[in-house]
Amino acid sequence: MNRPLLELRKLSTLHLKPLSLSLYRGEISALRGSSGAGKSLLLRSICDLIEHQGELFLNDVSHLKMAAHQWRRSVGMLAAESHWWHETIGEHFSDPAGISEPLLQLGLSSAILDQGVTHCSTGERQRLALIRLLQNEPQVLLLDEPTSGLDQTSALKVEEMIKSYVEQHQAAAIWISHDPEQCRRVATHQLMMDNGLVSEDIL
């Protein structure tokens, strides 16, 4: 029997209505909805970053039975604005030499690792944050508009990297996007959020 990789059971917060959802290996679920509908709040709840009700399971193991840092490493979130705590980009990677290929795939030079964070554009930081997330090899990706600051060429490269990762690692993803065409390109199915309520949508 095919078991869910990620399972939400009546997950809710003050602003989100109870949601039960199963996500299987190899799936990318596109999440759409108007600004303020609660999409980012949902991802933060799944990542256990904010207080919530209901249960979360990864491979049938409750988040309550896992240390918070372990859960967030396995269920990794890419925020719309990622945090950077060191002065240079390279200091944020455990093995800077080991990310030369991902940098190249996303159109970035290895020289960017020596740059200060504040000297990088929003789009560069967005791509670097994705590489940083994937280095942790999460089983589930929670992606909050990962291509919002990118041109079409760079966005397509990011899409390919994420799709390849999900396929190769038999991972799964929830991907917030406002672009219907992108949803059709990347998603196996689509969800729509309206006023804190999530429903299935047709691609």
How many domains, as an integer?
A: 1
- Based on DSSP secondary structure assignment, what is the total number of beta strands? 10
CATH superfamily membership: P-loop containing nucleotide triphosphate hydrolases
| Helix content range | 25-40%
Instruction: Indicate the CATH topology.
Output: Rossmann fold
Question: What is the average of the pLDDT values?
Answer: 92
What is the assembly state of the chains in this entry?
single chain
Number of helices, where a helix is a run of at least 4 consecutive DSSP H or I residues: 6
Strand line-up in the sheet with most strands? 6-7-8-3-9-10
Low-confidence residue ranges: none
Question: Span between N and C termini?
Answer: 27 Å
Reported for the largest beta sheet, the result is: 6 strands, mixed
Task: Write the CATH architecture name.
Answer: 3-Layer(aba) Sandwich
- Indicate the structural class: alpha/beta
Q: Order of SSEs, N→C?
A: EEEHEEHEHHEHEHEE
**The CATH C-level class name:** Alpha Beta
Q: Give the percentage of residues in beta strands.
A: 15-25%
Using only CA atoms, what is the Rg?
17 Å
Q: What gross morphology would you assign?
A: globular
